[in-house]
Amino acid sequence: MATNTVKVTLQIRHDEAADWLARNPVLAEGEFGLETNPSDANSFLLKIGDGVRNWEHLPYLNKFNSDYFSKTVNGDITLNPNFVDDINNLIA
After folding, report:
1. Which of 59, 65, 69, 86 has the most CB atoms around its CB within 10 Å?
2. Residue 5: inside a domain, yes or no?
3. What CA dihedral angle connects 17, 20, 23 and 26, to 10 degrees?
């Protein structure tokens, strides 16, 4: 059987801590929210929504760093391909 490779762009909702708290949204069930730190470009905090609790009441999943995410020169956040496998292991 032939294997097809499809390139995709995964957009993860992200913002700085102060903006998350000011908006305090409810993330949909399974929706990722990434908290960036303007003073440390390689420090990220991750929450996963449950469709019920606001941002401030969701626990941080773990502290993620440049092992998973990195910021490009133009400010885009790139994702390490191992991220999905590691998240699946954490929530399994």
Report:
1. 69
2. no
3. -150
Predicted local confidence at residue 45, as pLDDT: 85
Record the tokens describing residue 42, joined without a space: 């390689």
**Stated pTM of the model:** 0.65
Query: What CA–CA distance (Å, rounded) separates 39 from 54?
Result: 25
Domain range for 38: 13-91
Q: Are 14 and 35 in contact (CB under 8 A)?
A: yes
Would you state the structure tokens that stand for residue 21, as one six-digit string?
Answer: 């708290």
pLDDT digit string (tens) for 34-48? 898 777 766 778 898
Cα gap 33→48, rounded to integer Å = 6
